[in-house]
Amino acid sequence: MRKVWQTPGGIHPAENKLQSVQQPIQPLPLPPRLWVALNQHAGAVAKPLVAVGERVLKGQMIARPQPDSGTALHAPSSGTVVAIGPHPIAHPSGLPADCIEIVCDGLEQWIDRDRHPDYRSLPRSELLVMISERGVAGLGGAGFPTAIKLASDRPIELLLINATECEPYITADDSLLRERAEQMLVGIDIASYLLGDPAERVIGIEDNKPEAIAALRTAIAARSDKAAAIELAIFPTKYPSGGEKQLIQIVTGRELPSGALPAELGIVCQNVGTLYALKRAIVDGEPLISRITTVTGKACLRNGNYETLIGTPVSALLGHNQLQPQRLARLIMGGPMMGVALPSSELPTVKTSNCFIAADASEVAPEQPAQPCIRCGLCAEACPASLLPQQLYWHAQSQQHEKLEAHNLFDCIECGACSYVCPSNIPLVQYFRAGKGEIRQQRAEKAKSDFARERFEFRQQRLEQQERDKQAKREARKLAAEQAKAAQAQGDNGAAEDNSAAALIAAAQARAAARMASPQQQRDKLTRAITSSRARLQAAEDKLTQAQHDGADHSQLQALQAAQAAAAQKLQLAEQKLAELAATDSASSSDASAAPELDAASRAIAKARDSAAAREAMSPSEKMASDLAALDKRLAKLQEKLELCEDSEQRQLLESSAAKLQAKRDALHTSSQGDQHGI
Amino acid sequence: MVFKPVSSPHRHGALSTARVMQWVLLALIPGIAVLTWQFGWGTLINIAIATVTALLCEAAALSLRGRPVGFYLRDYSAAVTALLLAVALPPLAPWWLVVIATASAVLIAKQVYGGLGYNPFNPAMVGYVVVLISFPLQMSSWPTPLGLLSDASQPSLGPSLAAVATGTGIDGWSGATPLDLFKHGVNGQLVSDFVAAQPLFSQALLAGLGWEWVNLAFLAGGVLLLAKGIFTWHAPVAMLGSLALMALLFWDGGSSHSGGSLLLHLFSGATMLGAFFIITDPVSSAVSTRGRLIYGALIGVLIYLIRVWGNYPDGVAFAVLLGNFAAPFIDNYTLPRSYGHSRARRATEQSK
Amino acid sequence: MQPLWELVVANPIAAAVLALVGLALLFGALLGFAAERFRVEGDPIVEQIDALLPQTQCGQCGHPGCRPYAESIAAGEAINKCPPGGQATINALAALLDLPAPELDDEHGEASEVKKVAYIREDECIGCTKCIQACPVDAILGSAKMMHTVIAAECTGCDLCVEPCPVDCIDMLPVETGIQGWQWQLPPRPGLIASDRQPHSGAAA
Fold first, then answer.
1. C88 part of a folded domain
2. Which residues contact A144 (CB under 8 A, 6 or more apart)?
3. Chain B partners (3+ C-beta pairs within 8 A)
4. Does pTM top 0.80 for this prediction?
5. Where does the record place a coiled coil (chain A) (predicted)?
6. Are residues B214 and B145 in the same domain?
7. What does the pLDDT look like over C74-118, one tens digit per residue?
8. How close C155 comes to chain A (CA, Å)?
9. Which ipTM was obtained for this model?
10. CA-to-CA distance for A585 and B77, rounded, in angstroms?
C-alpha cells in the first residue's frame, strides 16, 4: 500500500452517496432540443462555426476555441441549428450567455469517426491538436483545456489521477470506475505518452469507494505485464481531499508553493472522467459530447447516474428522475459544499456538470441571518490550507485589501469547510469571494489607470515636443529674415540674388510675363473673351427689349441700357486687342516656329490642337487610315520593349497590352475595309 | 423576480452559537450541584438573581441599540455570563452585589463594546473584579463547607432568602476559603503541621474540604465539553500545566515560606472553573491553538504569582483579565503557517 | 547641590515636578534622536497620492489633470474632489494621509456607479479633430478630414471630448460588464438594525 500523508483541517459531512449508486449508469432519452453554451471552459468564449439553419451531425465541431484558450465544442446529436444567442445558463449570477441551440432530428447520425488506437505512432504535437479539437477539458470541475495541461514542457515525474470525489452526494466518478475502469486506464496511458512517460502513475482514491477500488484493482491486474505500473493510493475519507493541492499533499507529502503550478513540482493531476474522455476522443474518435452526471436529492423520487449529453436541459434530467417540484427547496449544480445554486431548471448541462442535487428543505441549510463572530476558531481548525478564515472575515468585511492579501486570501480554495463549521452561520466563503472579486477589480482598474497615466504623460511630451519644434522653426525663420535684411543693407555687389526678396519678386514677374508671351494663348483668350462678351451683349439687348415691351419703369430701363452699353464696350475692347495681336502676330509669324520661350507643354498642346484640326479636315476613310497607322506604330514600339524586357511579370503585361492593341487594329482594319467597299 | 445568488456551501454543520452555550450551561450543572450540596441555597439564589438581571440588562441594551432583541437573546450568551458569575460570587452574597456584578458584566464589559463577539475582556471576570474591588468585605465572606458545620446542615431556604435580601450574613456561618486560610494562616509553621492543625485541610482528601469537590465537579464538566468538541484542549491544559509547574518549582518541601502544594493550587479556589469555563470563552481568548497554549500558560503563571505574592487569596479573575489584555498580541505572533508558504507571517508584516 | 537637595526633601511636590520634567526631557531627547536616526525614506507623498487617483485626467477637480491635483493635495487641498474615483479613492487617500474621509464634494460632479466610454456616431462626424485635441490620453484615432473613432479600451470616460464637438456626435455609453464581469457581493452586515430586518421565518421577535 502506498504511503499517504494527512492534510490539516477538513470536515466530515454526511456522505449521502448511497442513494445514487443503486443502479449502473443509465442512458437518457434524447431530449428534443440541446443548448451548447459557448463559455463552458476556463478561458475565453468559443466562436461559433455554424450558422442558423445549418444541419449538423453528431460530433461535428460547432465552435472553435480562441487560440491557446479553451477547447472546441461539438454538436451532441445530429439536428439543425435554430438559434445562436443568449440563453440562461448555469452561473451563480443567473445571467444569460450565448448558446447554440440545436433541434435534434432523432437520427443520432455520427460524423466520420477518426479512430487512433495506435496513438503512440502519432507525434505528440498532432495528438495534442487532436485533443483540443475534440473538446477534451477537465471534467473534475474547472473545465481547464486538457491539451494545454498535457502540453507541459517541464519534466513530469508523477501523473496523479484524481478519483477522490470528496464532496458528498456526487458519485459520477465512482460509477465510472465501477463500470469502465479499463477504458479509464487507457486514458492514463495516453496521458502518460503525452507527458513523456512519467516514472510514477498514482490513482488517489478515498476509502469510501470499496467497489471502485476493487474494479480498479481488477483492471490493473488484467493489464499486460509490459504495461507501465499504476499504483493505488487509498486514504481516509475527509472533505476536502480531492482538491489538487490537498491531493498532492496526501499522496506525496509535499506542498505546492503558493501561486505555483503542479507542473513546477513535476506533477500533473487529471480527473478520472477527463482520462476516460481522452480515451474516447483518441481511441474511439468521439469528441467530448457527453459525460456521466449524478442526479440526486430528496426532491427527486429516483436518484442515479446517467450518460448525459452536453447541453441537455436540466429539466429533462430532473423530469426523468420524477422531480416533485413542490418539495424542491434548492437546485444545486455540483456538490453541496462548492456547488452553484441554480435559479431554474431551464438551463443546459455543460462539460463540468458532474452532479445535480434537487434538494428538499431538510437537505439545505436554511438561510438564516448571520450572528456575530464569537472568535471560536473552529474555522481555522477546519481550513485545509491552514489559513485564518476569521481574520479574512474581519478584513473582507471592512474591505481592507492589503490585509486580505497579507493573510493569503488567494490561497483559499473556497472549499466551504469554514462556513460549514461556523456556529454563527456566517457565510464566510461569500465574504472571501467578494473580497477576491474586489481585489481583482482593483488590480484591473489600477492597471488601466497606470496605462492612462502613461498615455497622458506621453501626450504631454508630444505636445511639448511640438511646441519646441514650432519654436525652433520660428527661430530659424527669424534668423533667415535677419540675414536677408543684412544682405540687403550691404548693397548690390555680393549677396546671393537667389535669397533676396526683390529677386523673388522679379522672378515672379518674369514668370507672369512669360505666361503672357505665348501669342497663341493670348489669341485664344481674346477669342473666348469676344464670344462671351458677344453673348452678354445679346442677353442685355434681349432684356432691354423685353423690359421695354413689358413697360418697365424708367429707372429699370436706364439700368438695363447701362448694362447693354457696358457689354458693347467690352466687346469693342476685346476685338481691338485681337486686331492688335493679329498685327503683331503676323509680323512675327516667321518666328512663330522658333518661339524660343515656349515651354514643352504649350508646344505639345499646340501640336495636339493642330492634329485635331487636321483630323477635322480629314474624311472618314483618311481618319481610319491615320488611326491604323498610329496603332501600327504603337504595336511596333511594344514589340521592341517586349524584346528588351527581362522581367516575366512585365513581359506578361506587355504581351497582354500588345494583344489588345492587335485586336483593336484588326477590328479597325476590317471596318475600314468594309468602309472602303462602301457600306 | 431578481435572482439572489446564494453562495456555497449549501449544508451546515450541527453546531451553532446557541448550541455551544447550551452545552456550557449543561456542563456547569455538576459544579452547581456540588456547590448547593456543600454550601446550601446560596448558589441557586445567586443564579436566579443573576440570570434575571443579565437578561433584563441585555434586552434593555439591545433595544437601546436598535437591535432585534429576541434574535440576540436566543444565543444564550447572557445566561452563560450570569451563571458563571453566580457560581463565582460567594453564596448568600447580598442581592445588590449580584445585581451590580451582573449589570457591569453585561452592560459595561459586553454591550458597550458591541455585544457578543466584540468584547475584549471576559464579561464575567469584569463583573467579578468590579465588585471585588468595590466591596471587599462582602466579597471575602465565604461560607463554611458542610463537613465543618456543627449541625451538619446548611441554612434552609427561608433564612437564606432573608440573608440575601437584607444583605446581612448568617451568624456563625461564614468561614475562610482554603486559599485564604493558607495565605493568612501560616505563621512560621511548617506546611505539614499547619495542615494537620486545620480541620479544613485535615479532613479533606486533596485540598480544602468541600472546595475540592467543587473543583472536581467543574473538572468533570470541563472534560465533558472537551469530549463534545466545544473547545480544544490547548488552553485548559496549558493553564493547569503551568500552574502545576509553578507550584512545583516554588515548593520548597513545605516550609513556612512555601507557596502551597500542587494539589492545593489545582483543587482550590476557582482553578477548575477558570480552566474549563472562563479561559475557554472564545471571544476574549487567543484564536489559534498555538496562541491558546501561550495564553493558558500565561494565565497559569499569573494565577500563582497573585496567589502567593499578591494581595488577594485567589487571583484567577485578575490573571484572566491580564491574559485578555495579552491575547491580541499573542495572536499577532502565532499566525499559522499556511499551505504553500515557507514560514508563518507576523500580522504586522506588510504584504508585498 | 545641598540647598537643592534640601528643597527637594522638604517639598515632595517639587521633587515630583522635578522628576517628571527630567523624565520628559530625557524621553523627548531620546525620541527626537530616534526620529532622526531611524528615519525611513519612503516615496515622496505626491507619487503616492497620484498612484491612488484614477488617472482619467478629466479636470473635474478643478486641476488640469491628476498630477496637479495630487500636488495640491500634498499642499493641503481637500481630498474629496474626484468624482471618477468615488468614495473608494477618498477612503484610500484618507487612509494614506491619516485624515478623516469626507463625502464626495458634489460641486465638482457626481460619482456615477456605471463606467462610461465615449462613442462617436460616425455618420455625423465631420473630421474636425477638435475632440482629438481635447482627449487627455489620446484615445481618439483620426486626423483632419478623416473619420474619428474612440479606442474604447483606452477611453477613461472623462467626458472632455463631448463639449468641443461642433456637431455634438459623441455619446457617453455605459460599459456593459455582463456575465464576464459579474462579482459576488459582500453579504449584508451582521447586527441587523431592527428597521432593516429582512422578513425571515423564525428570526427575530
1. yes
2. A41, A42, A43, A137, A138
3. A, C
4. no
5. 523-584
6. no
7. 888 888 888 888 788 888 888 888 888 888 877 766 667 678 889
8. 8
9. 0.86
10. 126
